Amino acid sequence: MDPKDQDTTPAAPGIPTENVTLDTPLHRGKQTVTEVSVRKPLSGALRGVALVDLLNMDTQSLHKVLPRITEPALTEAELRQMDPADLVQLGSKVSRFLLGKRADGESDA
């Protein structure tokens, strides 16, 4: 992955995050990743992808954006080897963030 494509900015306080427990843990050497935190992407993390592709959970778009908004930061190689059920879980979190509060049935009133 090109280093310029990785957003190393820590999540600012108040930016929503959601945790995903992986059905199939990822192995990084001696470390096992069983849970991934996904933070709401800011517009800079969405560069180079069409929002409609993310909403449709397009695999290539997810592979581009997820390394920028996950903790631990997932690599494109890890995402390509990921259990499809786990990729769908991560993609659904991204889609929900993009739809906003009103789409979740919340209101300002």
UniProtKB/TrEMBL annotation:
Residues 1-22 are annotated as: Disordered. The lineage of its organism: Bacteria, Pseudomonadati, Pseudomonadota, Gammaproteobacteria, Oceanospirillales. InterPro entries: Phage_tail_E/E. It comes from Billgrantia gudaonensis. It holds the Pfam family Phage_TAC_7. This is Phage tail assembly chaperone protein, E, or 41 or 14.
